[in-house]
Amino acid sequence: MNRTVERHRNILDFALSSLLRRKGKNLSLWVVYTIVVFLIAAIVFYTHALKREAALVLQGAPDMVVQKMVAGRQDLVPVAYAGKIAALRGVSSVRPRCWGYYFDPISGANYTLVASESPSPAPGAVDIGSGVARVLRVGRGDLLPIRSSSGAPMLLTVRKVLPCVSELVAADLIVMSEGDLRDLFRIPRDLATDLAVTVANSDELATLAVKISQRFPDSRPILKSEILRTYDSIFDWRGGMMVVVLAVAVLSFVIFAWDKATGLSAEERKEIGILKSVGWETGDVLLLKFWEGAVISLSAFLCGVVLAYFQVFFLSASLFEPALKGWAVLYPRFRLVPEVDPYQLVVLFFLTVVPYTIATIVPSWRAATVDPDAAMRS
Amino acid sequence: MKRALRFLGAWSLLTVSVALAVSPSPPAPPANAKCPVCGMFVAKFPKWVGVIRFGDSSYAWFDGTKDLFTYLLDPAKHDPAGKRMDIAAVYVKDYYTLGTIDGRSAFYVFGSDVLGPMGKELVPFAKKDDAEGFLRDHRGKKVLRFDEITRTTLKAME
Questions:
Q1: Residue numbers in B near A214 (CB within 8 A)
Q2: Contact present, B130 and B103 (Cβ < 8 Å)
């Protein structure tokens, strides 16, 4: 046991000094390796964290949303539908919701206006998201002018700015009383934007959705699972687009690594010949090459992953911003919750470290089986 | 005033404890509780939990009504030692509300297309209307009462 450890230690020692002898080649290899691992890991972390964030946000969403459709477009839904849907078996509660979007021509930003039931701001008062406060430079107690559908301006007092914790959902939010929102958009009392349906047993959701669309043929029930799936596919698509770009980077790395690792120079061949002639066995030579490859790929892998973690969770993926951001004026400022899926790390490991190590061993094995005399003469 | 308040407090405590003694709702299944019939972990299927309370205030949890009745109709087979034979109360979950209800007065829909963790199930309801509505929605065959469920019923669901 002790002898085996001692043997490995000696060979590792030799491998390290042999790596140091070819500083330039190995350092450039290490740098490229680290960059590729960094890019892939950063994208994997980023999309995973975004998906998780979306799932957290949607946790509080209603089990089902019922909209009314007119000519294929969403329309205001009659509040009377709520009572009829609530009477269906399995429905716990139905809540008509009033909300809408408002484009502010001064700042050029779009806001989400929501009527809140509890705790509702008093008529004439609003709670605003921190993004709105940032763009309009308003704070608590200031007046917020909004142009209503009739053209008359409405002056609303800011009651409070919503806390930064909810930045991802609430950045562009303006919460107001239902009366104010109805006046602003001129929504009649007997209509609402949509209906939020709560169902106790989620197994019954599909049956209820069928019943609702049969009972109200002009309605469109949307399940929470469908919303989640859409979010998932959006982030997957974005991740997918980036992965396609990265595939090219990975491929060029593979060619680079293959070239560097497999093409043994005449000098290296000679070195193997000398090692064998002074008494090294083929197994020892292979172990030496294995350690050389492992040192480079393991250190590059660790460095790349740590850098990616830092970039995504501490710098909020600032490198990807130009590629992932849209065209809006108002963006939420938030920091992703650090979380790494061990499964993804393992996949990344097997995609990079393992193939590289194998790529270094095979040519050395071929060189090591050649007669040492021939290797030294060539 | 103080005395009156104290009396009120004591009285409300008393009524609460009396209410608890009359219908103690069963505790949620512990994470390691296994169904005595099929051996599956019950806590993973909270929508389908069935509970038996025994005379000694111990409980057995089941991952479905079918397993609950399999036990009830032949307790000796699943408890050969015969330690827990006196059944004090039976609880099941109403399919629509997911609230815990008395199993002896519940209505069970047989032959529906809704599957539980153990496949075909007897789906429990507190109200007859709900059971009949469910029967129509999910192509059920019969609404059964507690006493009408026999080994033949269970055999038909295998």
A1: none
A2: no
Mutation for B interface: A63, A89, A198, most B CBs within 10 A: A89
pLDDT in tens, A240-267: 666 676 677 677 777 766 776 666 777 7
Query: B124: which 2 tokens?
Result: 């429990």
Write down the ipTM of this complex: 0.76
Q: Residue B103 — very low, low, confident or very high, per pLDDT cuts 50/70/90?
A: very high
Q: Where are the domains of chain A?
A: 2-58+230-377, 99-186
Domain boundaries, chain B: 2-156
Candidate from B97, B98, B137 with C-beta closest to A207: B137
Which of A90, A201, A211 has its CB closest to that of B47?
A201
Q: List strand residue ranges (DSSP E) for A163-224, in order.
A: 173-176, 191-192, 194-199, 219-223
DSSP letters, B87-130, are EEEEEEE-TTT--EEETTT-EEEES-S-EETTEE--EEESSHHH
B-contacting residues in A 204-243 (Cβ below 8 Å): 204, 207, 211
Give how far B94 is from chain A: nearest CA, Å.
Answer: 9
Tokens 């043997």 label which residue?
A: A7
Per-residue model confidence (pLDDT) at position A241: 65
**Cα B100 from Cα A158, distance rounded (Å):** 46
CB contact under 8 A, A200 and B114: no
Classify A99-186 by CATH class: mainly beta
Q: Whole-structure pTM over 0.80, yes or no?
A: no
CB A363 within 8 A of CB A263: yes
| Structure confidence at residue A160 as a pLDDT band (50, 70, 90) | confident
CB contact under 8 A, B137 and A89: yes
